């Protein structure tokens, strides 16, 4: 008996559904139930007591790990969101800096033009005066 596609025919002739038990007494032991007559029986041999002792602990550890992973994933998503917000902020401040530099440059050019204009005015004033 192996694989997920195992098909079991009940004594009544209908195909039985195979499920896996996760009780502490039969962790991981497969059983079948007939949807027609409701017959239930084990497909796997009885659990050895070592498996019964070990598997629930393993399951519990797995579940704890899964929860831990889920929590870490949640934290990572939170950090990712924060990072995205931060990136947006940096992008904005970077754009602002660019604009400020551009503005500064234009102001410098305007002052230069202003100086040239003043020199020109002085020249005209001198030549007309
Ligand atoms: Zn049946």
From TrEMBL:
Keywords assigned by UniProt, alphabetized: Coiled coil, Metal-binding, Zinc, Zinc-finger
Domain GRF-type: 9-44
GO molecular function: zinc ion binding
InterPro entries referenced in this protein's UniProt entry, alphabetically: Znf_GRF
Source superkingdom: Eukaryota
One matching Pfam family: Zn_ribbon_GRF
Coiled coil start-end: 55-120
PANTHER family per UniProt: ZINC ION-BINDING PROTEIN (PTHR33248)
Protein name: Zinc finger, GRF-type
Protein species of origin: Artemisia annua (Sweet wormwood)
